[in-house]
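Appendix B. Raw example, untouched.
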Amino acid sequence: MNKLKLSLIFLFGLTSACYEGTDGNENKSTPVRKTSTPVVNSTANNSVVNNSNNSIVSDTSSPTPKNQTTTQNTNQSEIKSGGFSGNLPAGFVQPMDDVGKKILREYGAVFVARGGVTPPKTVIFRDESEVSTFQSSLSEASESIGGFTLKLQSAAMTGLKNAIAEAKQSNLTISPRGEDSAKRTYQQTVDIWKKRVEPGLAHWVKKGKVSQSEATRIKSLSIYDQITEILKLEEKGIYFATSLDKSIMFSGAPPGTSQHLAMLAFDCKEFGNAKVREILAKHGWFQTVVSDEPHFTFLGVKESELPSLGLKKQMNGGKPFWVPDI
């Protein structure tokens, strides 16, 4: 009897140990760290974009070769069918007026940006309050580049820093044109607008193309309402670019429409260098505004994926621009 008891005790203890081993090891998985704030990997210029959830993730796999940017498309539904409109952010407000549609055609590539950034859901912010609310909701990174303190959405800044590091290895520089080359406030875009519109109205009044009363009326409007009036005049050949011979959109985006407000734009001093453009593209930055050559937009995907987002290549001056295919 004593031998039987001892045998039962031994078997019970062995069974318990087996269950403890299962709970302690097989059901534990090593956690993979994800972060909504992009991290520059220890391997120079090796940024990994996970398009399954639009976030930058730390790379726990074997490092990719130096200077290589890897885009993971683990969830192909992230780039959806339906072309450009099918890839706009959820809740995007489609413009119904001619001015809004024009702005979408000119600046619309930013609305299908991926790679861990947040594009706007409207083609135009009405005022400073709307811009501030949007910008305060974003993950922002600040860096000193080329003597200027620049701010961008975090994933966009990671891509830019990686591009700068890769360019440096080829004895190239990627630098901003000025202090407003990245994030801008609504008031900055208003200031740019006024510097074009007010001298322009004075010029066209003097030329007899616009009456003084009409010019006074336009200047009395809110900035938001001025946009419609100025673009209507331009349809008649009354232009407001600095040179007064082309659209004001060649001199700056109308207030509330600039990609700089979304913190997804960078004005590059070396835009004419094909190698610089190639490096920027490798890290998610592309030219998307045909009327603004120094301007690059962070889209966060490989160039081969841009057509799937509903963008088409348009050549201008030997340079490729990616614009909405609408």
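End of appendix B.
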